[in-house]
Amino acid sequence: MTLDTKPYKGARDFYPEDKKLQNYIFSVWREVAQSFGYEEYDAPIIEPIELYKTKTSEEIVNEQTFAFEDRAGRQVTIRPEMTPSVSRMIAARRQNLAYPVRWFSIPNLWRYERPQRGRLREHWQLNVDLFGVAGLAGDHEIIVLADAIMHSFKAKSNMFTIKINSRVLVDHILSEYAGLTKNQVAMVVRLIDRIHKIAQGEFEKALAEAVGDKADTLIQIFNAQSSESNGLPKELQQHSSYSKLHKLKVMLARCGITNVQFDISLMRGFDYYTDIVFEIFDNDPENNRSLFGGGRYDGLVGQFGVEPIPTVGFGMGDVTIKDFLQAHKLLPKTEASADLVVILIGDVYMAAQEAIKTLRDGGLKVAVDSTERKLDKQIKSATKAGFEWAMFVGEQEIASNRYNLKNLLTGQEQQLSIAEINKLLVTEK
Predict the structure, then answer these.
(1) Segment 335-386, tens digit of pLDDT
(2) pLDDT on residue 55
(3) How far apart are CA 50 and CA 78, in angstroms?
(4) What is the rounded distance in angstroms from the CA atom of residue 360 to the CA atom of residue 318?
């Protein structure tokens, strides 16, 4: 039987060039998160399925988890998201932590869903969470951090939009203003979360089936988008949660973040969100979609039997940010894995080791072509691999400590000692 060379459906192979891009994305994530004072953590990739049944969306638990029974008969799943895990960890050491707690992680996550652009079954995700800050300052910090990440990827503000909403406002609209029952509220929340993923007619039909003649009122509200008041009745604009959103916009504007838009249809799919929610949307017409988002979830830690802790955070996936960078031509130039390649002339492999070690000890990354191929083929391979510099080593070079250093991009050559080569290339890095 011939084995298939393709990876598991919805997962990816990471060839060196792919891994370089992923490492670049991870490095930006880490650098920005740490600049805000966040510390990195991690958790097991396998968790009890109960962790998600009451703390995430029905769709994820019932349709998207890689769930199975272990050999001891326990129901477990490969983690589909990180928020329940970090909440569990915080709850476990609730009394021993110094608040506010600022944590981030870059976990590998799995969801059994249909692979498509921007969504795979396997992905990596930056998770950033702030525990212990109850007011708007916490929401503001998280959104400012998310914005800083976008700009660290060289994105300009006109390339993306930050949409914000309040689950408190939505709950008020559904339960108090529209008079829906608790079950109806839950159905409508899940439906609104899909409003941009289904046709308008399909949305309106499903809404009418869920709430009957109250659908017309809700359609008017949730279709209103563009104006400052977003078409909301004045009664709703006077609600404290709406004022809170306005204040958040003002706070962000004072930090130079003006690409913020109120969107009453923004829901976020997880059941644990309690107040402010936000999403970052790509403005490119070819990739006009949600990139990532988050919000406030004050009650999740308390579900582990401890005192609740006010919490706000977000998750940013590596697949969607890669699509964004591609759409806006922001992908970094791929560089060779080493600073120079040593091309051997003749049987000098062992004799060259002292010079190679000196270069490495001096701080250079050095690759060695020991294939004993013809010189022109070695040079061609080095150029194809993306090396900028090549150093030629033969018996004469070793004896004189003068080596031919060639810039493979410009063709320029010079005769230098090992110390001079080291100084030149270290300075250039």
Answers:
(1) 788 999 999 999 999 999 999 999 999 999 999 999 989 999 999 999 999 9
(2) 56
(3) 12
(4) 33
Amino acid residing at 417: S
Residue written as token pair 């080593």: 393
Do 352 and 392 form a contact (C-beta atoms < 8 A)?
Answer: no
CA–CA distance, 388 with 406 (Å, rounded to integer): 8
In angstroms, the CA 154 to CA 280 distance is 15
59 three-class SS: helix
Give the other-Cβ count within 10 Å of 27's Cβ: 11
**310 token code pair:** 């006010």
- Report helix, strand or coil for 272: coil
Q: Mind listing the domains of the chain with CATH numbers?
A: 16-327 (3.30.930.10), 340-428 (3.40.50.800)
Residues 6+ positions from 314 with CB-CB distance below 8 Å: 127, 128, 142, 146, 278, 292, 293, 294, 295
Cβ neighbors of 76 (< 8 A, separation 6 or more) are 46, 47, 48, 49, 67, 68, 69, 70
pTM of this structure: 0.88
d(CA 252, CA 260): 8
Check: CB of residue 319 under 8 Å from CB of residue 123. yes
Q: Is 381 helix (H, G, I), strand (E, B) or coil?
A: helix
